[in-house]
Each structure stands twice: as C-alpha cells, then as structure tokens.
Amino acid sequence: MDSAEFHAAVYDKVREIPVGSVTSYGHIAKLIGMPRHSRHVGQALKFLSPQTNPPIPWQRVLGASGTISSRGPGSDGAQRQRDALEAEGVEVTVGRTGEMRVDLARFGWFPAPVTTAGGRRSTSGEDTEEEDEDA
After folding, report:
1. Spatial CA neighbour of 130 closest among 51, 24, 59
2. Which of 20, 54, 70, 81 is the most exposed place for a label (fewest CB within 10 A)?
3. Where is the composition biased (Acidic residues) (predicted)?
C-alpha cells in the first residue's frame, strides 16, 4: 500500500466512526490491515486539509489510553479537538497533570477487523471495548 492509498484507507475508516464515539490511532491502523502503523494514522490526520469533502471527523481519533494528543506548545489543536468532541456529546475530562481524556469504555468504537472472501479486511460493525497498545 503506497502513501496515497494508506491515507485514503485511513480517511475512509475514520468516516465510519459514529457521532458521539471515538477510537484510537492503533485501532484505525488495525482496521485498514496495517496494525503496526498507528503513528502513520496520526500523520495522515495531521496533513488532512480542512476543505476535504466529505469531511473527515479527525477529532474522533485518540491515543490508546483515550487521551487527546498534544499538538505541542503554542497550538490550540488539542482544545479544538476537545471542543469538537464535546459538541458531539463526548465527555472529556482533565486529569491531574492536565491531560484531556475520554472514557473509552463509555465512548469507544472498536469494531473487530474481519477478512472477506477475497482476503481483504473490513469491519464487522460490532463494537467491542478493547484498548490498543500500539498508539
């Protein structure tokens, strides 16, 4: 899978996340058949154009522990992500050290990857409450 195909697969899968739900970078990587590429999922979303149509709900993708990833000093990206999630009804809490977190057991969307007859991976649509270790 080349870079353009990878990005397209990420964007297609992220569009499937229901409103009011979140998943992890690692789970998106698993769903597109590239389980060791969670960081690449983050990069694909980082380079997403705001003019992409139909829109891609980038805000629904979090770190493996349910944390909103920091965008570095001087960036308001984490706060924008929090605001977008809260607008969808997702509760975001702030931890002792200031990290913003979503309860994955409550808001997580983790359909199991399945293999079709042609050997391609897709999602079954079933929700499970699993947490990825590779994001």
Report:
1. 24
2. 54
3. 126-135
